[in-house]
Design a protein that fits this description.
Its EC number is 3.4.11.9. With 378 residues, the protein is of the alpha+beta class. The chain has helices at residues 16-22, 48-54, 76-90, 104-112, 126-129, 133-158, 177-189, 252-271, 278-291, and strands at 4-10, 30-35, 38-42, 59-61, 95-98, 116-119, 161-162, 168-170, 173-174, 193-194, 199-202, 223-228, 231-232, 241-246, 312-314, 321-325, 337-340, 343-346, 350-353, 356-360, 365-367. The chain has two domains: 4-124, 3-Layer(aba) Sandwich (Creatine Amidinohydrolase, Chain A, domain 1); 130-367, Creatinase/methionine aminopeptidase superfamily (Creatine Amidinohydrolase), CATH 3.90.230.
Length: 378
C-alpha cells in the first residue's frame, strides 16, 4: 500500500501553485492532496460547487466532512489544517511530500499527527516552468494589453508640454511618477487588468536604483523608464514590459546607453533557446554592455551609468518566477517564458531599460512583444 501523499495548502488567491491545481482564486484557506494520482480539493463548503465546476480535481470536499476527534476549530485556517490531517489519516497516509509554500500551521498539525513531512524543492516549480500552449496564449494576451497601455503612457509623456521649469505638463497639470502610475492603473482597470504589484515610472536621480518605483515630476530632456507588469484578472497571468522615453532631444550619453542596451538585448535573445543555460543568456547580454564601456556595480548606486542587475526572469502566474537569467541560472526548458530586460542606470544621466517577454523554443526564441524600442514617442 502506498502511504505517501502530495500536499499543497494555503490561500489560492495568493499561492499560484495551489491556484493552478484547483483553478479558482479562493480568498479562504484550501488544500490540494494527490494520492497515487487521485486528487482532492479541500475547500470551504460554500466554495465546493465553484471548485467542482472548474473540473480540475477528481474530488471536492470540505473541512466539515473530516471532523477532528475534539471538533474543528472556529478558525478557518486551523480547521482546514485539522481536516487535512483527518483526510490523510482516513487514507492511511504516513508520509506527506510538500513544496516551499506550505504554511507552518499545516506542517505543525501534520507533525502533531506524527506524519513524516518531506520537502520537494521542485514541486510547484518545475511543473510551472514549461508553459502549455494555453498558458502561452494567456501570457501573449496579457503582454499585448500591457503594450497597448504602454504606448498610451509613452505618447502622453512624449507629447506633453514643458513649462518654464522644464517640467512636463498635460492640460496644465505637471506629470509626476505618482499621477502617471494612477493614470496607468485606470487604463488597466478599464481593460480588466490590475496593477497588483504597482509600476515603475522613474527618472533621474531615483532611477539609479533600478527598482525604485519613481517619485516627483518628469522633466524634458531626461529619460523616463516605464515598467508595467499588470495581471490579467480573467486568467491571472501577468504582462511585463519596459520601454524608455525621452521628451524632447535625448543627450548623446543617453543615446549611447540606449544603443548598448538594445545590442545587449539582441545578444540575449539569441541565447534564449531550450537546453542553453540561463546564465549564458545573462553573460551574453552583460558582455555587450561591458564592451560598450559600462561597469558592473551591483548593490552600489552610481552617478555614471552602470550595470545593476541580471538579464531577466521567468514569468507566469507570478510576475517573478524561477529561473533567473543570471549567474547560476540552470538549463532552460522548451516552452519556458522569460523577460529579457538589460539596463543601465546612474544618478546624473538617468536610466535606460528595454524589456520584452520571450518563449524559449527548441532552436530559437519567440518574442511576444511588438512595440518598437525607440526613445522618441512623439
Amino acid at each position: 500500500m502506498n502511504t505517501t501523499a502530495i500536499l499543497l495548502a494555503g490561500y489560492p488567491d495568493k499561492n499560484a501553485s495551489l491556484f493552478r491545481r484547483i483553478q479558482v482564486p479562493l480568498g479562504d484557506p484550501a488544500a490540494w492532496v494527490d494520492i497515487q494520482g487521485h486528487t482532492t480539493a479541500l475547500v470551504r463548503d460554500l466554495e465546493m460547487d465553484r471548485v467542482r465546476q472548474a473540473g480540475h480535481t477528481d474530488h471536492v470536499t470540505c473541512p466539515a466532512e473530516h471532523p477532528a476527534p475534539l471538533g474543528l476549530s472556529a478558525d478557518r485556517e486551523t480547521a482546514t489544517a485539522q481536516a487535512v490531517v483527518q483526510l490523510l489519516r482516513s487514507k492511511k497516509i504516513e508520509r506527506v511530500v510538500t513544496d516551499r509554500s506550505l504554511p507552518y500551521l499545516f506542517a505543525w498539525h501534520l507533525q502533531q499527527a506524527e506524519m513524516e513531512l518531506a520537502y520537494d524543492e521542485e514541486l510547484g516549480v518545475i511543473d510551472r516552468r514549461s508553459k502549455s500552449d494555453q498558458e502561452i496564449e494567456a501570457l501573449a494576451k496579457a503582454q499585448a494589453t500591457t503594450e497597448e497601455v504602454m504606448e498610451i503612457m509613452l505618447r502622453r509623456i512624449a507629447r506633453a508640454n514643458a513649462n518654464a521649469d522644464g517640467f512636463l505638463t498635460v492640460d496644465g497639470e505637471v506629470l509626476t511618477s505618482e499621477n502617471m502610475k494612477r493614470f496607468a492603473a485606470i487604463e488597466f482597470l478599464q481593460r480588466g487588468f490590475s496593477m497588483t504589484h504597482g509600476a515603475i515610472i522613474a527618472t533621474a536621480p531615483h532611477v539609479a536604483d533600478c527598482h525604485h518605483s519613481g517619485t516627483g515630476p518628469l522633466s524634458t530632456g531626461h529619460p523616463v523608464i516605464v515598467d508595467l507588469y499588470p495581471r490579467d484578472d480573467s486568467t491571472r497571468y501577468n504582462g511585463d514590459c519596459t520601454r524608455t522615453v525621452v521628451h524632447g532631444e535625448a543627450s548623446d550619453t543617453v543615446k549611447a546607453m540606449h544603443a548598448a542596451v538594445i545590442a545587449a538585448k539582441q545578444a540575449a535573445d539569441k541565447k534564449l533557446v531550450a537546453g542553453n543555460l540561463a546564465s549564458e543568456v545573462h553573460q551574453a547580454s552583460e558582455a555587450v554592455l561591458i564592451e560598450h564601456g559600462y561597469p558592473i556595480s551591483r548593490g552600489t548606486l552610481t552617478d555614471a551609468p552602470s550595470i545593476q542587475h541580471g538579464t531577466g526572469h521567468g514569468i507566469g502566474l507570478d510576475v517573478h518566477e524561477p529561473i533567473l537569467l543570471d549567474e547560476g541560472g540552470g538549463e532552460m526548458l522548451e516552452g519556458e517564458v522569460f523577460t529579457i530586460e538589460p539596463g543601465l542606470y546612474g544618478r546624473i544621466d538617468g536610466g535606460v531599460r528595454v524589456e520584452d517577454m520571450l518563449v524559449a523554443g527548441e532552436t530559437e526564441s519567440k518574442n511576444l512583444n511588438r512595440l518598437p524600442y525607440g526613445l522618441d514617442w512623439s
